[in-house]
Amino acid sequence: MLTPSNSIKALTVLFRSRPVADLAMLYATLQTGSRMSVFRRLSAVGYLSSYSHAGQFYTLSEIPMFDRDGLWCYQGVCFSRHGSLKSTVAHRVEGAEAGSTHHELHVRLRVRVHNTLLDLVQEKRIGREPLAGQYLYVSADA
């Protein structure tokens, strides 16, 4: 395992050469097999996990150039200013004046959102209303 200062340098070099890395690359870069050590070092520099690919990819917080919706995708790997897919979907639905359909969310976020929407409805974080044979997802606050 590299020292903390050498770890920061190694992570900087890695993410300069490639803006997104998976856990295997991080293990190799930091010369460790400890997941906890990798996340300890990433936390020291600030990082984001992808909301796509089940959170398997990481980037430094300073790298993404988020669009107006707070999204950034690099070679098919997507990150959100809001963190997880669940938080991102909740934020999108809450911020939509007229609500959002499953299809709209799927197209915009580029990932399957069915289970996430169901979880958010069951947790009462968002609501849903039937509309023309589909559901319109709306803010939980009337």
Q: Kindly report how far apart the N and C termini lie.
A: 52 Å
SSE-based structural type: alpha+beta
User: Level of helix content?
Assistant: 40-55%
Low-pLDDT stretches: none
Overall geometric form: elongated
Brief account:
It contains six helices and eight strands; from the N terminus they run αβααββββαβααββ. The chain is α+β, with helices and mostly antiparallel strands and 142 residues long.
Polypeptide structure, described:
This protein is of the alpha+beta class. Helices cover 43% and strands 22% of the residues. It has six helices and eight strands; from the N terminus they run αβααββββαβααββ. The chain has a three-stranded antiparallel beta sheet with strand order 1-3-2. A three-stranded antiparallel beta sheet has the order 6-8-7. Helix 1 (4-17) crosses helix 3 and helix 4 packs across helix 6. It is elongated and about 55 Å long. It starts with a helix and ends with a strand. The model has no long low-confidence stretch (mean pLDDT 96).
Question: What are the main properties of this structure?
Answer:
single chain, 142 residues, alpha+beta, 22% strand
Topology overview:
Layout: H1 4-17, E1 21-22, H2 23-30, H3 35-45, E2 47-49, E3 57-60, E4 71-74, E5 77-80, H4 85-95, E6 100-101, H5 102-109, H6 114-122, E7 126-131, E8 134-139
Antiparallel strand pairs: 1-3, 2-3, 4-5, 6-8, 7-8
Helix pairs in contact: 1-3, 4-6
